[in-house]
Amino acid sequence: MKFYKYMNLNSTIFLNLLLVFIISFIILGLQSFSTAQSLDSLIEEAITNNPQLKSQQFKIKASEFRAESINNYPAPNASLEFFSGSDIKSDFPDPGFFD
């Protein structure tokens, strides 16, 4: 019999503690929703307050600019020409052509 009495007392305490925990969780949860900031605003604040992040951001922008400027130049090419004829002119007509 004592076991059931003891169990009943513990279950009431447990239910009361559970109810307090649930109510406090709901109140704290609602409070956090009202003061929540967007992720973008937090990132901007971190960048403005941290000089190392700002320098890394400038390095990224500079590398993007370099990549764009490299693509603006024409592609390099090489060519080779070979001429097998001679530039010597003759006064004699070509034997294959008769006027």
Explain this structure.
This protein has 99 residues and is mainly α. Among the domains are: 6-35; 38-66. The chain is built from 3 helices and no strands. The longest helix is centred in the first third of the chain and has 33 residues, at 2-34. It is rod-shaped, with a radius of gyration of 43 Å. It starts with a helix and ends in a 27-residue tail after the last helix.
Please provide a brief summary of the model.
This protein is mainly α. Among the domains are: 6-35; 38-66. It has helices at residues 2-34, 39-49, 51-72.
List the helices and strands and how they pair.
Blueprint: H1 2-34, H2 39-49, H3 51-72
Characteristic terms for this protein:
99 residues, mainly alpha
| Overall pLDDT level | 72
Alpha-beta classification: mainly alpha
Low-pLDDT ranges: none
Q: What global shape is seen?
A: rod-shaped
Give the fraction of residues assigned to helices: 55-70%
Beta-sheet strand percentage? under 5%
Instruction: Tell me the quaternary state.
Output: single chain
